[in-house]
Amino acid sequence: MKSPKRKRIRRSQTDAAAASSEEACSIGQLAERLKVSQRTIRFYESRGLIAPGRNGAQRVYSVADETRLKLILRTKNLGFSLEDIGRHLRLYDRVPVTTGELKLKLASVDGAIELLDAKLADLQAAIADLRRIRAKCVTGLRRGR
Length: 145
Prior knowledge:
single chain; Multidrug-efflux Transporter Regulator, Chain: A, Domain 2
């Protein structure tokens, strides 16, 4: 499997200051809130998918970091690769300025929607299959098998 490009997200000092507000939290607090390990959070950071602020050597996570990590975890849970997740996050990161950029972002968003719709259809088909199997099991139990 090809390793995704590690494009680091750079934080400005303003972002770091915002992260040090009341809403900021430590890696342990964030891990507890999201019910993941600190190692998981560090892994996504090492892949350049999140970039917490710093207070010296300590990571400081903002509400935006928490929201971003929730999105990462959700898309990973849906079976997307790290590369797919990175592309998905870039849809949120880039603010289009020109008409051309808006058209490009629209095409990317449409592609992401199509991909999610396809996954949703696959999930619905799998659930329908399991319900049919379940019904057969219930019928078998009622017949005393």
